[in-house]
Design goal:
about 80 residues; mainly alpha; 3 helices; about 50% helix; globular
């Protein structure tokens, strides 16, 4: 599971092309874990290689950690996003 300080091999920010659009979800967004899990299920259905499944597992772990972070920081909510 990557962070800003410790990116993983699947880190999109590090691999993004200089002009490539991206969308970042932060743990402070209460719906982020659900959106990450939705992406993981869609990616799982489209997976063609084991490497894709590693990304799915990392996404699920990220969603879990987002929930943990959000639970540990209850003062962050929709008004703080």
């Amino acid at each position: 599971m990557g962070t800003k300080e410790n990116p993983t091999p699947h880190d999109a920010y590090e691999k993004a092309e200089p002009d490539e659009p991206m969308f970042v979800l932060l743990a402070r967004d209460p719906i982020a874990p659900a959106l990450v899990r939705m992406w993981a299920r869609a990616r799982e259905l489209a997976a063609r290689e084991m490497r894709d499944m590693e990304k799915v597992r990392e996404a699920d772990e990220c969603a879990d950690r987002m929930e943990d972070w959000h639970n540990d920081h209850p003062d962050h909510g929709f008004n703080k996003v």
